[in-house]
Write a structure and sequence with these properties.
single chain; about 280 residues; alpha/beta; Rossmann fold; 8-stranded mixed beta sheet; 4-stranded antiparallel beta sheet; 12 strands; about 30% helix; about 25% strand; globular
Length: about 280
């Protein structure tokens, strides 16, 4: 990997679309993974703690705050991409046991070949559907479950229901946490429904996002943090406010209002998440 030039760009057809690995002109040995033109991951091979995407920094902040610094965790990642978060956890919490479930086998092989992750017997990547992985996992197996699953820039319907959330809760330890990347835009129907659905089984939660996204002014990412005990809202609030692109945390009565009137999603009526507006990803390229 070290012999690749900064101008090298890799494009291949994978199982879920056309994948591109685009060098970052500002950071040597850094690449953005695109799938059908939509940015999926950014990886800095020289510094796995550098996180380019703001929603990934918000997920990482939750990892930093939900357990004592440096303590190893047992983590299940639903959705792999270029393994940005697994690399971060391995670097910041040595000794963590991580399992990655990625449905696209060709994408896994592309990342393994072009953006190899450090050899670590505690980090295992498996080609499997996220829901099937949950079903096959024993009770209370993980401290954290992370969901960042997109197909065609949309989260598949079977990963949005209360039956799915119940499986997530089952594989979490009693004090464990569910972290989810939710993409939505005005009027945030999908995000509101996801908050209501997840809180039906993991009642203590907060949302972290850009103020404009939370107000329903534009499409973007919202990070959901949910568990059986209260999340560290003050600390998350400070981290979000101090980010390169400051964010807000919605919790308590404000989160109740956010999800007010939203129905819990069930397998029988689940749909894929809201599609992004046309041209949103090509605009900045």
């Amino acid at each position: 990997m070290g012999r690749k030039r900064a101008t090298d760009r890799v494009a291949e057809q994978v199982d879920t679309g056309r994948a591109e690995l685009v060098p970052d002109p500002d950071r040597p040995r850094s690449y953005t993974l695109l799938l059908d033109g939509a940015p999926q991951s950014h990886v800095d091979l020289a510094d796995p703690t550098h996180l380019e995407f703001e929603y990934v920094r918000r997920l990482a902040a939750a990892f930093d705050l939900l357990a004592p610094a440096g303590a190893p965790l047992r983590v299940l990642h639903l959705g792999g991409g270029a393994l940005t978060l697994p690399r971060y956890v391995a670097a910041t919490r040595p000794g963590s046991t991580q399992r990655v479930s990625e449905v696209d086998g060709a994408l896994v092989e592309l990342v393994r070949r072009e953006l190899p992750w450090p050899a670590d017997p505690r980090l295992r990547v498996r080609v499997a559907d996220a829901r099937a992985t949950l079903t096959a996992t024993r009770d209370a197996a993980f401290d954290v479950v992370v969901a960042d699953v997109f197909a065609g820039a949309r989260t598949p319907a079977h990963l949005t229901s209360v039956e799915y959330a119940t499986e997530v809760a089952r594989v979490l330890r009693p004090d464990g946490w569910y972290l989810a990347n939710i993409a939505d835009g005005p009027p945030l129907r999908h995000a509101r429904a996801q908050v209501a659905t997840v809180r039906a089984v993991l009642p203590h939660a907060c949302l972290v996002s850009d103020a404009a996204v939370l107000r329903g002014r534009r499409y973007g990412n919202l990070v959901l943090v949910a568990g059986r005990v209260e999340p560290p809202v003050p600390e998350l609030t400070r981290r979000a406010a101090g980010d390169w692109f400051p964010g807000r945390v919605v919790a308590g009565a404000e989160l109740d209002r956010f999800a007010s009137g939203a129905a819990v999603v069930r397998d029988a009526d689940a749909t894929d998440s809201t599609p992004p507006p046309p041209g949103i990803f090509s605009a900045g390229r």
